[in-house]
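Shall we go through a protein fold together, starting from nothing but its sequence? Label the sequence line and the structure token line clearly, so we can match residues to local backbone shapes. Would you write everything just below, so we can both look at the same thing?
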Amino acid sequence: MNTREMTMPARPWIVLLALACLGEATRAADFARTDSPTAGIQEATDVLPESGGSVKLPPGEYVLRQPIVLRTGVTLAGAGPSTVLRKTRYAETRLAARARQGSRSIRVENTAGFAAGDAVAIRDQDAMGWNVVQAIIKAVEVNELLLDRPIPRTCDSARHGFVILCFPAVTCNRASKIVLKDFAIKEDHARDLSVYGAIDLSNPRVRFAFSLPFPLAAIQLVDATDSRVEGVSVVGWLSDGISLQRGASDTVANCLVEKCAGKGIHAGGGLRDSLFSHNISRNNDDDGFFFCAKTRKLMVSENTFINNKAHGIGGLGDSGDKFNTVAKNVISGNGMHGIQMWDGDNNTVTDNTVSNNSQLAPGRFSGICLGKTSLSVVQRNRCFDDQPSKTQKHGIEELPDCRENRIGENRCHGHAEKDVVLASEQPAGPPDAARRRGRARTPSIEERVQ
């Protein structure tokens, strides 16, 4: 078999071993040079043959200043929690002037903490989702960062423009048969939003303008097929934890995502025929799991989604999600709904245990909520609230804008209000502003509880 392995020892700056196609060991100590922005990992993957191979990461800490970019057939394998990919220092500042499309430099208020070779993100309040700008610093001058590429869109200092040292730890674009397994990704820093001075951070729209969108997730796989993420933990990332956008036939299993500033696990962009199983997503600042857009035939099963600040599972149905199944998950103690089904059809939610949600606004959110949802199945779920002070509004709540859903064989008890409320039992009301706008953007948590 034609394989090649790159083995990185616990002290990667000492030595790297390359095992060539015929089993011959080749020393490649220069891969672990101290100035490598990926602790030598990118260099190790780059020497693998075109068919791919394995990069092994023994116990140790690997400090990242840039993302590790994988290609087809590459496996990145650690030794468990003792193998840690850790993002380097924290740096963030406001733009001092408009950064115009096509420019290779940006004016900033403060360059402290930034260095040549750092990967950064640039955005303003209009640069949502895919529009966040990513670049690498080539040089640092007085109140100016020189970049390795022209920026693809204008970012305006007058519209809360900023730059932050932030990037995916591991990413790919249009690759297949990638495997990530048995390592940890950690971010130790909290953001200091005081650098923005006198801005109203109590305003949900302002806070949303400073969020770090999914292209900056710790693991960001784009158009990946037949790939696996297994036994990986992500802790404290300043964006989402694990993000799969587009692609097909992927698996995320036995992973832990916790204390991330965004969503725990984010599936979207037309991802299809993929499995998310036996994961734990907890204590994240947004949804534990998020269906983003146009997902098809995803199986989300036997996971645990607990104590996330927004929904346990959110967005199921929104922007064209169809034929997805949410089954046998434990969903408890989340800030908003346990499971939110919104603006979609032909999805199935079955055999889940959903309890004690709506912690952010007691009595406001339900275990499973269907809004503007049709032709979907909600059955054999167990929804309950066993707290002395009840927070979960209903076990199952079907809003009056729903139609032709099959809801039955659920066991619900102990809620703040009625255990099950169906659309036929509720008066029709006017569509809210988000529906009239066609959900142009995902509202912040603060907006969702107002």
